[in-house]
Design brief:
Elements lengths: L19 E12 L3 E12 L8 E12 L16 E7 L13 E4 L2 E4 L6 E4 L2 E4 L1 E2 L2 E2 L5
Antiparallel strand pairs: 1-2, 2-3, 3-4, 5-8, 6-7, 9-10
């Protein structure tokens, strides 16, 4: 929480925690440095997702052909290295904010900071987990 401004006498603040865990593996293979193959496997987990969707597998693959290594390219002196490459992969994105799957409530109630102070609107935030697809019910 910050100290707020003397002009509007409001304070605010923000705090967030999240974590990321990843496992990564790559396999490369070439035939005569001419035909190239590569596979990558990534398994990521993020605390920003609910437990049943926390981890996901992200594979990718690539094939390459070094055309400059072929015999028909020997007489082309102005090309020293020419490669054609194609790839495919699945990407993930965890830039969704912190815990958006949880329901957020605000009460909108007022409270006083002291005898001579004006009333200040208080809006507590309550994070509620969703269990089995159903949000927990809270009575205030």
């Amino acid at each position: 929480m910050d100290l707020g401004s003397a002009e509007n006498q409001q304070s605010g603040g923000y705090d967030a925690e999240w974590a990321l865990q990843s496992f990564f593996s790559r396999l490369k293979y070439s035939i005569n440095q001419k035909y190239l193959f590569e596979a990558t496997m990534r398994y990521d987990g993020s605390s920003r997702f609910p437990e049943n969707n926390k981890y996901a597998f992200f594979p990718s693959a690539a094939v390459g052909w070094r055309i400059s290594q072929e015999s028909f390219m020997e007489e082309v002196s102005w090309v020293s290295n020419l490669k054609l490459k194609a790839s495919w992969g699945i990407l993930g994105n965890q830039n969704i904010g912190n815990y958006p799957y949880q329901t957020v409530l605000a009460s909108g109630r007022d409270y006083s900071l002291g005898v001579d102070s004006p009333r200040v609107q208080h809006m507590p935030i309550i994070r509620m987990p969703i269990l089995n697809g159903n949000p927990l019910k809270l009575r205030i």
